[in-house]
Specification:
Blueprint lengths: L6 E4 L5 E4 L6 E4 H9 L6 E3 L22 E2 L8 H6 L4 E6 L10 H8 L4 E5 L6 H14 L7 H16 L7 E7 L5 E4 L5 H8 L3 E2 L10 E4 L1 H6 L4 E5 L14 H9 L1 E5 L7 H21 L1
Parallel strand pairs: 3-4, 3-6, 4-5, 6-7, 8-10, 8-12, 12-13
Antiparallel strand pairs: 1-2, 8-9, 9-11
Helix pairs in contact: 5-9
């Protein structure tokens, strides 16, 4: 008698990922893998994006034990045979546009999907942070895992603390950015990022950069960023972003650094209650401290 239970998951590209049994060996885009880890799922392999290099980006890895999980490559150096050598039952990734598998070139994704089911969760513009979190939870649940029940209470408490911190008379000016170097900086458009939009919904005073062609970012010089006079800067901590010490020869950056509180911001953080609780708590504490010293 066949004891196998067919498994399926309708992903955010509108495709049905199907397997003859519940997948156990999962290869994942590193952000997705970090999210699954928070739900009790251990990937057997990880891959990065075109922005990553030959080693995994610790900022995207969350609590993953990187020394114990194979990193299979990133961008143009990633070959489908390398992914298949890990013998996955399922590949989990994210999508920003609801069509492309982020981190995989289209031809590689197509070749991979001919051999193994691929499931994506949409994390781009138009998605709420809670909605992204729930989709990952649904995927993890289909795989037989989930976050501890206490995490929901912790997240509720963190959201309450954030709303209380932003409800005072003083509302700090918050700017999210990704430094590209001494010449340019990418200013985040809050409406395009689920985590930033969630902050706005909880009362955080996020600054909106000037209009332009970029959907997610407005790319400007440091003078334009300094002119926004932020009190708090959410600063991209991914490996492809420049570090503060690399920027200090620029007077406009020094102005920002002198007047602002710098907070780490990961645009590709794990999409779990655990990660979001930490993020909201950090922002709430900083908003409260900043408002108290204004």
């Amino acid at each position: 008698m066949d004891q196998r239970t067919p498994w399926e998951f309708s992903d955010d590209r509108g495709r049905l990922a199907v397997a003859g049994d519940r997948p156990l060996r999962i290869v994942a885009y590193i952000q997705a893998g970090a999210t699954l880890w928070d739900h009790g799922i251990r990937p057997v392999g990880l891959f990065g994006s075109q922005h990553d290099g030959a080693a995994p980006d610790p900022a995207k890895a969350g609590e993953l034990p990187l020394a114990e999980i194979g990193y299979l490559g990133s961008g143009g150096a990633l070959h489908p045979d390398t992914l298949l050598e890990a013998a996955p039952d399922l590949v989990v990734a994210v999508t920003y546009d609801g069509e492309q598998v982020y981190g995989l070139e289209p031809k590689i994704a197509l070749e991979l999907e001919a051999h193994v089911p691929v499931a994506t969760v949409a994390v781009g513009p138009g998605r709420s942070l809670a909605g992204v979190r729930e989709r990952f939870a649904a995927l993890a649940g289909s795989l037989g895992c989930g976050e501890p029940l206490g995490r929901a209470r912790e997240l509720d408490a963190a959201e309450d603390a954030l709303r209380q911190a932003t409800g005072g008379a003083v509302r700090p000016r918050v700017l999210a950015l990704s430094p590209a170097g001494l010449e340019r900086v990418h200013l985040a458009r809050p409406s395009s990022w689920p985590d930033l939009r969630a902050l706005t919904e909880h009362g955080v005073g996020l600054l909106e950069p000037a209009g332009g062609a970029g959907v997610n970012w407005s790319t400007v010089g440091w003078a334009d960023a300094a002119a926004l006079a932020p009190d708090i800067v959410l600063m991209d901590v991914r490996a492809n972003a420049a570090r503060p010490e690399q920027l200090r020869s620029d007077a406009h950056w020094r102005t920002i650094e002198a007047r602002s509180r710098l907070l780490p911001w990961n645009p590709e953080a794990p999409c779990s209650r655990r990660a979001h609780t930490r993020f909201f708590t950090l922002v709430a504490d900083t908003v409260r401290e900043t408002a108290g010293t204004a």
